[in-house]
Amino acid sequence: MAVDNLKNIDGTWYVRVAIPKDVRSAFGNRTEFIKSLKTGRKSEALVLRTKDLHEFKNRIAVERRKLVIEQEMQTLASLPVDVKFDEMFQNLGEIKRRLMERKEDRKKAFQDSEFEDVQAVKEIDSHHSFLNLLAEEKEALGEDLHPALASILTELNEFQSQPSKTFKQSEGLLEKLENTLELGSFHGYAETHAEKEQVKTFIAEPTKFVKRHPLTEKNFVEFHKYEVKRKVTLRSIDRHVKRLNMLKSFLEKQKFELDYESVRVFLESLECADKTKLQYLCSYNAFYKFMFNNVDFRQKYPVNPFANHAVAKIRRGARKEDARKGFTKEQVKALYSNTISQEKTRLADLIRLGCYTGARIEEICQIKVEDLVEVDGVYCIDIKQSKTNAGERLVPIHSELLTLVKRLKAESKDGYLLKTNRGGKYGTKSKEMSSEFSAFKIALGYPKDLVFHSFRHTMVTELERADTKNILVMSIVGHEVGGSLSMTFDRYSDGPTPMAKKEAIEKVKFDI
């Protein structure tokens, strides 16, 4: 039974790849590559096959490129004398790029064959035969071989007479042959002195071959602009680009094309949780959707290489052991009491605001004095900056907060209710306060699943225990209405009144 490039033979799984007809001669007319994965478990075989699949496909691609190079060499030989220099120079660049790729393939073959440069020696023999034949033809015509070719023929004769041939010797000689014979033929198509110097310089300069892919700085810049227009936060955009650069470095280091298998190998190389890998794929899919607007990209990548990757997800409804939890009333009291005893006034104010609003820490730190408004006779905080549309809401000020809000308003010197830092690169004003709270609760021995966000969980729990309607709870903490209710409440309703929310929030009490 064969499936997913796998074949089960007597209980053992093998990886297999069919060899196309046009390159079978390069592999001894074999019809397929096949290799044992040494496992009887299909799930394990699906993972183990990746590296071999990539290697088999690369070997096929290498032979195909060799055929293309041979065809291009023949085409080059038949080019008319008046060929445009720009077109000729472009062909030179493409052939040089592919010669560098062949060099990378030889290096890999050298490492895989107990350090014998068999492939390079085979190519050198081919060049040697060609030059000997050319020398014989010239001699029959009573002509001399070109001095440059005669010199390199002498080197070839010396090389062939050596009993052992080192990797450095063979690669150095082969590079000289390529520059003299395959690339050197371009000199004849350059007319002016400037053109000849340009060709000479280009042939001589070292080139590090990198397989082409759309992960380029230019595309990253355009992607960044596009995401800014979509109102995506700078923090998220920078995170997208950082992940794209990681994939870019991986592809170039491994000499991989951008395809499904490459992405799979990259994901397996990441030492992080599956949840984090999903975030990487989210970034890559955002980039793919942006690039899909480009016609050339659509033609080259009609199938998304970032889609359908089997990354473990926690089933909806399954309990997560590391999920955030809410503080109990006793824990809230203990936290607040410790801030007072340790004279951490600002932290005490932050905790009090978090308890009685259920707001996110960044929402609290972004509150301005001008955001304290009276609506329908109810004193409220107008939260204008939130991570979701539903987060932009009016939160009635609990009676337990009135004294605190009045003091903070009078003390404000920068227009914000709480004095924090300027927010750094992304304008995140809560960064300093978040770090301070984290260090504080860790010092008191609280576990990692209790964070500042836990105050939101606590508020929701207390509202539910007070028999508050779900729509009121969502409206107070800024949760989106989901399911079939989203059409009714999001599109047609202005939401609960400030007075209704005020009556609900007053049911929540903490002994602080």
UniProtKB/TrEMBL annotation:
Domain of life: Bacteria
Cross-referenced InterPro entries: DNA_brk_join_enz, DUF6538, Integrase-like_cat_sf, Integrase_catalytic, Tyrosine_recombinase_XerCD
Keyword annotations from UniProtKB, A to Z: DNA integration, DNA recombination, DNA-binding
GO MF annotations in UniProt: DNA binding
Single GO BP term: DNA integration
Signal sequence interval, chain numbering: none
Pfam families tied to this protein: DUF6538 (PF20172), Phage_integrase (PF00589)
Gene3D superfamilies referenced in this protein's UniProt entry, alphabetically: Intergrase catalytic core (1.10.443.10)
Domain Tyr recombinase: 322-506
PANTHER family: INTEGRASE_RECOMBINASE PROTEIN MJ0367-RELATED (PTHR30349:SF41), PHAGE INTEGRASE-RELATED (PTHR30349)
The family this protein is said to belong to: Belongs to the 'phage' integrase family.
Protein name per the record: Tyrosine recombinase XerC
Protein source organism: Pseudomonas fluorescens
UniProt lineage: Bacteria, Pseudomonadati, Pseudomonadota, Gammaproteobacteria, Pseudomonadales
